[in-house]
Amino acid sequence: MGTPSIFIILILLSFNFTSISHAGSTIYKHVDKDGNITFTNRPITGGQKLQSALQSYRPHISSPKTLNHFPKENANIQNKRDIKRRTILEHELATEMRLLSETQKNLAMLQHDHENSRQNEKVKQLQSKLHRHNNNITALKMELTKL
């Protein structure tokens, strides 16, 4: 068994222990006529109630806060934050648009010159880059419309 396999097993076990800690503290064990053992957090006919080590641990869970409980900034502070956010997004948008333009130019130059397979690979890379810049521009514009 390699290191990645052991790592995966440890992750799965940690998820299992996490789910047990959230499942509740009462566990029921049932052994059927064929010797199959079933553990559950629900009472089962013919099942044996087990005590869990987690039973005594009950974390304090506060009620979820509503929007009325969250602190509110005054309009001046929030306005300054929105202006800064808009400036950052506009700068990122300008950068992406510049990169998109450069990529389009490079792609156009390579598409006219199909000498060897290295250029074909470069064309594929530039097309991928072009697609990524278009996606970034769309996402940035969407964020800007939210302001």
SSE layout and pairings?
Elements: H1 3-23, E1 26-31, E2 37-40, E3 48-51, H2 75-111, H3 117-146
Antiparallel strand pairs: 1-2, 1-3
What does this structure look like?
- By secondary structure, this protein is mainly α.
- The chain is 60% helix and 10% strand.
- The chain has helices at residues 3-23, 75-111, 117-146; strands at residues 26-31, 37-40, 48-51.
- The chain starts with a helix and ends with a helix.
- 3% of the residues are buried.
What is the 3D shape?
flat
Number of helices: 3
Order of helices and strands: HEEEHH
N-to-C terminal Cα separation, in Å?
53 Å
- Based on CA atoms alone, the radius of gyration comes out at 29 Å
Mean pLDDT, nearest integer? 76
Q: Unreliable runs, pLDDT <50, ≥5 residues?
A: 18-23
**DSSP strand content:** 5-15%
How many β-strand runs? 3
The percent of residues in helical segments reads 55-70%
Largest β sheet strand count, sense and barrel closure? 3 strands, antiparallel
| Quaternary organisation | single chain
Strand order of the largest sheet: 2-1-3
**What structural class do you assign from the helix and strand content?**
mainly alpha
Question: What are its keywords?
Answer:
mainly alpha, 147 residues, single chain, flat
Q: What's this model, at a glance?
A:
With 147 residues, this protein is mainly α.
